[in-house]
Amino acid sequence: MGKNKNNKRPYYSNNNNNNRPSKSPKKHHPSSNISNPKTSSPSQPQQQQQQPKKRPTFSSYLDTPNLPPKVKLLCEIIATTQSNSIDASLTDTGIRVTQADVEQVLKLSYSFPGPSVKFFRWCGHQLNDDHSPYAWNLVVDLLGKNSLFDAMWDAVKSMKRERLLSLATFASIFSSYVIAERVQDAVLTFEVMEQYGIPRDVVALNSLLSAICRDGKTINAVEFLHAAQDRIRPDMDTYAILLEGWENESNVVRARKTFDDMLFDIGWDPNNVPAYDSFLTTLIKAGPDEFDEALKLFHTLREKGCYPGLKFFKVALEACSKKRDARGAAMLWDVMLRDRDRGVAFHVSPDLEMYSCVITLFCTCGDTDTAKKLLDEMVLNGIFPNSKIYNVLFQFMLKSKRLRDATVVFNEMVKNEFVPDCANCALAVRSYLNSTEYVMAIKIWKCMIENYDSDLEETGNRLVVELRDMNRLPEAVKYAEDMIARRIKVSSSTLSKLREGLNKARKTLVYDELFRKWKYH
Asked: Which residue from 211, 203, 213 is spatially nearest to 236, judged by alpha carbons?
């Protein structure tokens, strides 16, 4: 696009001669109307002169496995060929492209806007200019994300003539301007949408606000909403977008104000789950005082027949875990499951991460009974424990000396193809030996040496010595020999105790053979 002497956005001017996207279409291919990004500089309206951020990191074909050979070759040509040689290089391949090929190549070529546009034009000749709307939107997006706004608007102009424009096109433009620190241009784009046949309604408004909030500029989004709400009435999604923005920016004060505005404007609504979710999460993350405020609001929501979503429960349970507040976690858990099963307008079910959190919390607080009940409950709900959950429960069963329950957990764990971590194995061997349950101690030791190669020496020596002390000399010798064969160090102290036991049992030859193996390994 050429420069505008009046310093107005070309697509915003009332002068048809200056409004470049309104020019009559040329007679050649639509894609040829896109100006060359290499020679087209981004527009610089007077409203904003901020320097753009560092260019985003784009996906590359080099990072994408299992690409079709054709797509990979086309991406490689775009990435390694000068723009003025692209056409010839592409033609030399003899490749015939489909709409899907064009889309896939463009998605992986954002880092090369000039060659990508040349590729798009070249494909247009093969496809009789029948590019998909998605491919056009990708061109608009890759140009915008590279701050090549003149070329981007050329593409929009061509899309308008082809009747391919949609809200998705403008959502991309909003995002590109905001990322480039040109929020005012995003707003001006919203103001002229109707000139391009796209309704300037609440859905479009929410698309603009979302782009602004995603970039950490929620205050700008709120300011624009205040200016626009006389023309466009905000809906639930509008406030959910703003509240999520404040959540991401950890701004409790402004989140409260937006929440109050929402209640005044649209009241309580059971369908407004994302808004409640974000606001309650913002409160919980802010600190202990706000946590109490969040719980009070949660109960108010329930009274109104409204509920937050899964995110709130996750964050709230994590907060309870950090505070070791088993009582608070139990209340939230009970409400979550009871209200869900009552059939109210609430459809949150705990996931694996949440079960892990509460099981760990109850174990930490010494309530292994509740933790075990939760383990059984999650299986009934179709969620299966992972290694972390089993290890936590196994560890605390051992520490609380509930060895029978620990054995049940261990057997279930192994049955489901998990094993205790090395530290838990060591703890288990020690715990079972202290209770003279040598059979389980040996079982854990076998599990340990089958799955771990280090940190075995202390536990192995303990097992051998304790077996000797329990008058299980044959087993003690057996596992000492096995340790030697596995090159796990048998200490001289352990060997000395075995010698005492074997001499007392008049089995000197057994000791001599054991010593010989020990000496030469």
From this structure: 203
List alpha helices for 65-112, DSSP H: 69-80, 86-93, 99-107
**Calpha distance 365→32 (Å, rounded):** 69
Report pLDDT digits (tens) over 29-39: 566 667 666 53
pLDDT in tens, 47-64: 444 444 556 789 899 999
On whether the CB atoms of residues 246 and 260 are closer than 8 A, the answer is no
Quickly count: other Cβ atoms within 10 Å of residue 79's Cβ: 16
| Tokens 């990072």, residue located | 63
Domains contained in the chain, CATH given:
1-194 (no CATH), 201-307 (no CATH), 419-521 (1.25.40.10)
Identify the sign of the CA torsion 329, 332, 334, 337.
negative
**Residue reference for tokens 């709409």:** 99
CB 202 within 8 A of CB 238: yes
Task: Tell me the whole-structure pTM to 2 decimals.
Answer: 0.80
The string over 49-73, giving b where at least 16 C-beta atoms fall within 10 Å of a residue's C-beta and e elsewhere, is: eeeeeeeeebeebeeeeebeebbbb
The answer to whether 9 and 1 have CB atoms below 8 angstroms apart is no
Who's near 231: CB < 8 A, 6+ residues apart?
none
